Amino acid sequence: MDNTEKDIRNNDYNSSKEEQILISVTGQDRPGLTAQITNILANYDATVLDIGQADIHATLSLGILIRIDDRSSGQVMKELLFKANELGVNIGFSPITDEEYEDWVNRQGKNRYILTVIGRSLSARDIAGAAKIVAAQGLNIDSIIRLTGRPSIMHPERNVRACIEFSLRGNPEDRQRMQAELMQLSQGMGIDFSFQRDDMYRRMRRLICFDMDSTLIQTECIDELAERAGVGDKVRAITERAMRGEIDFKESFTERVALLKGLDVSVMQDIAEHLPITEGVPRLMTVLKRCGYKIAILSGGFTYFGEYLQRKFGIDYVYANELEIGEDGKLTGHYVGDIVDGKRKAELLKLIAQVEKVNLAQTIAVGDGANDLPMITEAGLGIAFHAKPRVQAGARQSINSLGLDGVLYFLGFKDSYIEEPKQMETKG
Q1: Under a CB-based contact definition with an 8 Å cutoff, are residues 131 and 141 in contact?
Q2: Which end of the chain is more exposed for a tag (fewer CB within 10 A), N or C?
Q3: Which of 192, 211, 341, 372 is catalytic?
């Protein structure tokens, strides 16, 4: 080789540069497919700038953005085409300029949000409605994943929940308006939404506080006691007015307790043993305890029933109201200590968080009544559960379509995560 030829080859080497190529693979999925594709890239020392893969009904969609020496890119694409033909999949290549790549990288610095959509089932109309609201706010959908198991067509009763999670990037132009539109869509479609900033606090919730009556249980304990005392109609009327926020909780509580005077305390045990537990509570409590959450009941109801649930589900804290019992074993019509009202619930949430050394942003509050609004708005994640209209209007998240275990999807749990420990125990 003469000096002229050497100079030409050296110039070719020195003038080489790297380029970006987006590789898109679609087709029937099979074990080892991704490994075989990436092995070709490894042979040419390609740098993977981004990669994503989804599998829907055994159909693969794989995207890989690589940076590679432009002298090797042609051969890489050639080998990948042969491999795709061998594997029976489709493959495509798109060049990405340095400017396009940098613009994409710069957009990654924008805020991220998670929009969770839940319901008994989800239709194309439901998803289209949510996507339309997102687009109108200037948010981009980066990915969509399903948190619930796939529904069975032959046995639809086996999966009664549907949940998908949108990963969004950007900043909503009018978050308040967006919340209102999601709420309107929720009421019209029979589905529920949660819109949360995707930060470390969302991924590290540690304390969850529940209202008890009409949240953990499908009744108001004071109404149950009133029925036994023969004053059910009077107490229910006061309860409804209080839960709608029409009258002061302390005033209504005092009036209702007074009507229980003379009731034998033995009826409380019978009521406790027959409490109608809300759908999803056992599943929710099992998962929360398994994952190390601290759980509290903050209730305007009564300690007796809260402590019964505490023993049943391993709840860590119970704060409720104490009924005074006379020496004759009957209720006196009075209560002991301070009333746990809305203000007190918010104070207790902050106190427990402080004791447990949990940032307030890591807390969750769930309730249905007007007296739950202070803790719902104080918590990092506040959820109105089958709540009164006023409460739903004041909460950013609500659940009306599912049982209480719908909370798990707002926390990002997938059914596959939840069921895995049970399967492992069974196998063991």
Answers
A1: yes
A2: C
A3: 211
Question: What secondary structure does DSSP assign to 139-207, as a single string?
Answer: -EEEEEEE-SPPPPSS-GGG---EEEEEEEES--S-HHHHHHHHHHHHHHHT-EEEEEE-STTGGG--E
- In single-letter form, the type of residue at position 419 comes to E
Reply yes or no on whether 2 is catalytic: no
Between CA 361 and CA 203 the distance in angstroms is: 11
Task: For residues 74 and 78, give the distance between their C-alpha atoms in angstroms, rounded to a whole number.
Answer: 6
Say whether 364 sits in a helix, a strand or coil.
strand
Residue 89 has pLDDT above 80, yes or no: yes
Would you list the DSSP string of 45-58? Answer: T-EEEEEEEEEETT
CA distances from 357 to 220, 294, 296 (A): 32, 11, 15
Give the DSSP letter of residue 377: H
Look at residue 109 in the predicted model and tell me its pLDDT. Answer: 60
Q: Which helix (H) or strand (E) holds 423?
A: helix 415-427
CA distance 163 to 155: 18
Exposed, middle or buried: residue 359 (CB in 10 Å: 0-12, 13-18, 19+)?
middle
Using DSSP, state whether 28 is helix, strand or coil: strand
Q: Which of 192, 198, 213, 405 is catalytic?
A: 213
Which whole-number Å values give the CA distances from 381 to 162, 235, 378, in the listed order?
A: 21, 32, 8
Q: Residue 70 carries which side chain, given as an amino acid letter? A: D
User: Is beta strand 59-69 parallel, antiparallel or unpaired with respect to 18-28?
Assistant: antiparallel
By CB atoms closer than 10 A (0-12, 13-18, 19+), residue 247 is: middle
Binned at pLDDT 50, 70 and 90, residue 158 comes out as: low
* Residue 211 bears catalytic tag: yes
Altogether, the residues listed in the chain come to a count of: 428
**Pairing of β 90-96 and β 18-28:** antiparallel
Encoded amino acid at 240, one letter: E
CA–CA distance, 378 with 189 (Å, rounded to integer): 28
Q: CA-CA distances (angstroms) from residue 131 to 124, 196, 425? A: 10, 16, 39
DSSP letter at 215 equals: T
Instruction: Read off the pLDDT of residues 206-257 as tens digits, 9 standing for 90 and up.
Output: 999 999 999 999 999 999 999 999 999 999 888 788 767 788 888 889 999 9
Query: Residue 33, Cα to own-chain centre: how many angstroms?
Result: 32
- Are 178 and 166 spatial neighbours (Cβ–Cβ below 8 Å)? no
